[in-house]
Amino acid sequence: MKFTCPRATLLDPLLLASSVAPVRSVKPVLQNLRLDASDGVLEIQGTDLETSLRIRVQNVEVERAGSCLLPAAKLSSILRELESGPVTFDTDQLLCRIASAGASFRMQGVNPEEFPEVAGFSESVDVQIPAALLRKMTRKVVFAVSAEKTRYALNGVLLTLRKDSAVMVATDGRRLASMEAPMELSLPDGEKTAIVPPRALNQLDRVLTPEDEFVGLSIKDGTLLVQTQRATIAARLIEGKYPNLSSIIPAPGETKVSLDRSELMAALRKAAIMTSEESKPVRMSFSSDKLVISARSADVGDAEVELLIEGPSQSLDIGFNPEFLLDGLKALESDTAVLEMAASNKAGRLVGDPGYVYVVMPISLG
Amino acid sequence: MIASAPRICCLDLDTFFVSVERLLDPSLIGRPVIVGGKKGGSGVVTAASYEVREYGVRSGMSIAEATALAPRAIFLLGSHGVYSKYSKKARSIIERYSPRVQAASIDEAYIDFRGCERMYHEPQDRSNDETIRRTVCELTGAILMELGLPASAGIATSKSMAKVASGLAKPEGVLLVEAGAEAATLSPLGVRKLPGVGPVHEEKLVRAGITTLGELANAPEDLIRHIFGAYGTNIHLSARGIGNADLGRERPAFREHDPRGQRMGSISNERTFRERSSRVSESVLSSLCERVCWRARKRGVKARTVTLKLRYSDFHTLTRAHTMAPTHCEAKLYRVVRTLYRQARKKDRSIRLLGVALSKLCSYDEQLVLFDGDSEERCGAVDSVREMFGYDAVHFATTMRPEGSGPG
Q1: ipTM of the complex, rounded to two decimals
Q2: DSSP string of A315-342, one letter each residue
Q3: In chain B, whose CA is at the least distance from the CA of A249?
Q4: Alpha-carbon distance B293 to nearest alpha carbon in chain A (angstroms)
Q5: Which residue ranges make up each domain of chain B?
Q6: B16-80 placed in CATH 3.40.50.1370
Q7: What is the distance between the alpha carbons of residues A332 and A348, in angstroms, rounded to a whole number?
Q8: Between 1.10.10.10, 3.20.170.30, 3.30.1490.100, 3.20.20.70, what CATH number should domain B267-399 receive?
Q9: pLDDT (tens digit, 9 = 90+) per residue, B359-399?
Q10: Per-residue model confidence as pLDDT tens digits over B286-315
């Protein structure tokens, strides 16, 4: 195999593929990337057997078609350090020579046959989803995925595809983000659901380019397949039972307050300075004309931030983890955020963008 | 975690001693029976059948008086050993229906059916009240079928109201007083129907012009306090149907005292035991974790540091500490402590003492959850069960292992 390609074209795909390869693995072969060059195209594959990525680099000068398997970490270090300009890969058996202006490396590769075949890469996709919308949905929910390993299903994003809409939901049991987007999907009646590992969605976010108008998706045999113009992602879905959402997402509460989103974020960030590991909540006191956000930690000090608002009809004192609220506010795009609350011990809802609901449980103030 | 309204049932075994005597000697059925002493002798009437009540014989009356009122009645000495045996049998039937039972006397028990509505619901039930009433009918039916003892029951939102209702339901009836209907039910009744009102009080009340509970309820509180003294307020409330619905605990949930919010110092428990098998130690550790975490939750604190203390049978003692994200959850703590223990245990020698201590205590505000899932949230459920049924009502399976030295 011998090909030449500008460093600038090669770097990003190579880094993306190496981010999939595991740093440590019981199967050391997975720490490599597979490179296949033919007909002006270089294809790079990486996998940790949970998430797999295949990414294509176009307009490569292929002198000799072929394949090689090279250590992902070393390969990305080399590419990162090289000066811009063309890079040539030239293999002789398993040995690979990487040369660029002023620097050359020789690296021992592994037999490409040893790299596992990624299931699903050859499958066709079921539906086409507008890429921008899918990316938007992902960004609005993925941060709410649970990091705790106690409840496996919550470690993923629940994706529901229907004939006329797609929904993404993520929750860690304390807050929940849900985004529903209307779209025409060529699906039979009923719905398809999958619990998608956030890693696959983050990968997708990174591989999408401005040229991608649609993303192909298919859910089959416990695998989600995502196809963009330059890449294919195959992710093993999370098995498990997702909590029943209809019983979790509350109806809008009586106390509704419209706030300037950036003002509220700034106020929360100020008050949050005086929270601590032991005393996480900020107290939000809503009255008819103002909102006072305060925080107090025994060993640190206290803070009080005031916002003038068009207040709710009844006053309310409620405690929230400011980070949770800020996460939701960051995910919103509209300038106005609407906070809907029922009581100091009931879930609050943050709305503003069409189809988007962010639910946060309060902290009971001791 | 109990959401529904209080549903206290007062279950009374009708003319209990007489009923038992009639089981032992069926020839007594339908005849006037007085239990308490020989005819004309000393002693007091402990039970009187409905047949002699017509003559004015009442429990608590002297046998001499009863003899004068009903000279032809059958007088029995009574056999208390047998009565208590039947009482225990009745209790075990009651316990099939609700775990919250408080014996008030040998023939009377309070049962809390709060929160049982869904469990007993049948499609034909039109309301929760109906579900509970039907269930209590089943219960009195079971006592009659299995023991041959008639029983009456009153169901209401407080103990005192349930007691009055059970009196109104006699004989062999079940009466449910709906929430809100208490005052109306009590109002026409004579003052003596209310538990706590004795003959002396009655006399004083009559002198003040009060004969019914309705009048008692409307009387000025000062007057009632004057007649009943310190517990006048309670009597006044009871007359309006407002009362205590707490059965209390028959045994204390926990003996150790942990003042709430106390962040000073540490919380520790240790146990000396004989290690018959290696699994005993892990069982002891899990029981210690449960204990210190329960205490931490009672104090309303979480701990950042846990220390394991291990003493071998040769008295060689070592301690190992670990700092973690603040917790008061036994499931989380046990995982840490078990790891510490497995790493620390080097000697091939049996252990005689294990201890677990929590330190670097900090208070916390409770993050509420959308749904139950995390182990931290399960602690709340464990605490409520213990609050009701005592500390030993629930444990880790590891703690409960038969080879283990058991909880404690």
Answers
A1: 0.81
A2: -EEEEE-HHHHHHHHHH--SSEEEEEES
A3: B370
A4: 17
A5: 8-12+81-184, 16-80, 185-239, 267-399
A6: no
A7: 15
A8: 3.30.1490.100
A9: 988 877 778 888 765 556 677 788 878 877 778 888 888 88
A10: 999 999 999 998 888 889 999 999 999 888
